[in-house]
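Bench log. Compound arrived from synthesis this morning; before running ITC I wanted a structural hypothesis for how adenosine-5'-triphosphate sits in the protein. Inputs:
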Amino acid sequence: MSIQRRKKHNRSNERRKLKREEALKELEVLEKNCQNLPLNLEYESFKELPLSLLTQQGLQQSNYIEMTKIQRKAIPLALRGRDVLGAAKTGSGKTLAFLIPVIESLYRKSWTQLDGLGALVIAPTRELAIQIFEVLRKIGRKHSLSAGLVIGGKNVDVEQERINRMNILICTPGRLLQHMDQTANFKCDNIQVLVLDEADRILDLGFEKTINAIIENLPKERQTLMFSATQTKSVKDLARLSLEDPEYVSIIEDSEHSTPISLSQHYLVCELPQKLDILFSFIKSHLQAKVLVFLSSCKQVRFVFETFCKLHPGAPLLHLHGKQKQTKRLEIFNKFSSMKHAYLFATDIAARGLDFPAVDWVVQVDAPENAETYIHRVGRTARYDASGHALLFLLTSEEQGMKAALDKKKVPIDKIKVKSSKTISIQKQLQSLCFKDPEIKYLGQKAFVSYIRSIYLQSDKSIFKVDELPIEEFAATLGLPGTPKIKFVKKAQSKNATRQKPKKVPGYSSSDEDEGNSVKILEMNSNTLPNLDVQEKKRKEANPKSKLDKMFNRKNMSVLTDHYKKLVDQEADNITSEEELITLKRANHELSDELKQPGRDPLSKRKLMKATSKKFIIKNAPRGKRLIFDDDGNPHQVYEFQDEKAFRSAGDIASQKKEFIEKEFEVMKKEDITDKIIARDKRQEKKIKKKVKLKEELEENMKSVVTLSTTLPMYKEFHEDELNKNAERDFEESSDEEYERLSNKRQAASLPDHTDLNGGEALINKKRKLLEIEEPKTLEDQEALALKLLNRL
Ligand SMILES: Nc1ncnc2c1ncn2[C@@H]1O[C@H](COP(=O)(O)OP(=O)(O)OP(=O)(O)O)[C@@H](O)[C@H]1O
């Protein structure tokens, strides 16, 4: 190396050394500043915090300058290394409140790829995880840390390959645990920071055990940050388990309301059958808006989306639910995010954490399960410093309970009235859609059942009262021709009915209340209305549930599923356990009155088998009648062709009958003998054929014996059993006459104890039941043995 080049090399080395020293110094200062960060001060902007230059640049370039309330409180604590349990309103900027400390913590520890996984961020849903990942990419763009997204719905193998190269992982609980269990070299023992975002949602979704299992795999020495928009008891329980001496930061408790001030909130009271009319009218009057519409189930979402698309309200419609594939969900998420005016029909999958920009309205057509879910749903609008509107549809039966729950959670909400003159009825259109398109009808039936089921399964019975729902009217407003039968509602109703005393209704005559087609099953003569238990019992008696009924229902269900599958998006359409609860209404297959056998029980399996056995059918089949056909082919009784006088002169009827039977018996006897002779001849013919065949086979065998004699020992085994069995089969097949002949033959076939087959060299050992033959030495011996064997046959 020349002197000049050496000098240059040394200079660059020195520069690098200096840089390293500077960086180390910066880190030291940062660390010191963080540890000494005064917590009693009010920080307004990110610049005031001891953050790395790279993070500051990332924040600035993403236009994050001023901090939100939760960020002001939580970030300084987290920078000092404390565990934080944060609660803040929706859209208040919780994501940055945990992402900044995560990046800073690893940066201050000079984390590199060689150090492996340093931080885990767990979110309840894939969408939320993706969203967090995007924010991390934005603010961490200047850092050299690597970050990965580990969510379900993607190839595990690809993830397994890359997961170990990541410093920060954003993941959903299930997939993370899967990697902990399955990915061989996945190491979590160096984790510095754990974040649980939307902790309440994680627990709601039933991930408690998964989270506990994950936490068990993590080192105890770590920092944990836990955030949620609502503080529930289960969140506090989880915090107790996973956080160490945490700092509790709540912005909700500080404020008068638990929802953003810029959010205007209203509710309206309507009846269930009016809901879709009101929603349709709302869309018609808010065409230039971005609206998120919440419904209780995937099936509801699909039905409303499909039918409204066909009704063309004039606004772009989208739908989002958990049964869609991940790619489809993302596509819709991005589409709705980028659209200025659109309606997104969604389940609670879109309720939490999702940051759709500039949503004007959140309309809750089906009431949320509780006040917490309400807060999350409305939190999709009025985010950060934007304003927004929320509208909640409540049934009369839900109003009181839900209002009380919202008041308790400090949700300011006012009642508004629906102008019936401005409401457009779409019931007729829906009916015609269901009539024209069976798939829409099936979807409607599913939507109907899933809605009723969702109400039935709600835990807060002070709000949700399934037995007060106007079920039949609701089915009609969905356009359904009848009301699908639902077992659980009947159960609830009958429970309710048993609590009530029977009422007296004069002149009551009931048509079947469960059947949409109004099948008249119960006709009550008395004036007393029996309670529903008795009605149910009687209905069952009149319409027993046989195996056939069940098969019919099952068949119908699969038909439904096929149609249903075809309908929307051709997406994965998992059939839920819900189907088990559905009893589809079947057409009226009642027997006509004359064929009806009242009080007849359905047959048991054993009885049914007996009744359908051939023996039983033959035994009980009606005896044939002798008829004479005339020239035109018409049947006539025998006596119609006889002169009655001549018939009577031949003697009395009984003796004539006896004589006839005797005569016929003789004929039958003769015929029987002929039949037997024919049968015997046939059997003998068969036997001869068999013998010839056997002889041929033996000859063939002997030939092969001769050829193989040089290589194989000549032991042949003949099982005496086989011979006896053959004889027995013959015996069974024979008639009595043949008995003697056959038993003689059998004696001949059964060999004596020591039969000399080959000059006294062969032995039949009866105990061992086999014939032992001395190996013939010469060709002559073999021929002699073959001849003897043939002769024995
Ligand atoms: N300091 C900030 N300056 C400007 N915008 C911010 C700031 N912090 C957050 N935001 C914006 O506010 C919106 C809401 O933030 P974020 O999604 O973090 O809220 P959140 O509290 O997690 O909401 P949710 O509880 O609904 O999940 C986002 O669009 C985000 O970009």
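What the model suggests: The CA atoms of residues 459 and 770 lie 79 Å apart. Residues 263-477 form a domain with the Rossmann fold fold (CATH 3.40.50.300).
ITC booked for Thursday regardless.
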